Amino acid sequence: MDEKLFQEPCNPWKEVLVIKLFGKNMDYLLMKDRLKKMWKLNEGFDIMDINNDFVSPLAKVEKTMVWIRFPWLNLLYYDENVLFGLTSVMGTPIKVDDNTLNIEGKVFKNLRGD
């Protein structure tokens, strides 16, 4: 089967997050409001109640994005290239968070008493 034929029906679902609530029932509007507040979203956000049509144990997850944390990493290695090198062992690095990239400036400001 041509890869494009398979990918086209998947395109609308590329940025979808499926959430299953275990042991709780929550009103649709309440759920939407809570997610909007938690994720600080303003636009481009909608939810859909699919009831029990989605069988999550049977869903195949091929890719997922994860946050990798190195709690005892020396500040010397707080460099985007070094961090991408470390994380590339586990997959394709996407981004280093701004707090990590700006740690050098914060540390020196604190040492100077700024």
UniProtKB/TrEMBL annotation:
Record InterPro entries: At4g02000-like
Superkingdom assignment: Eukaryota
Name of protein: DUF4283 domain-containing protein
Protein source organism: Pisum sativum
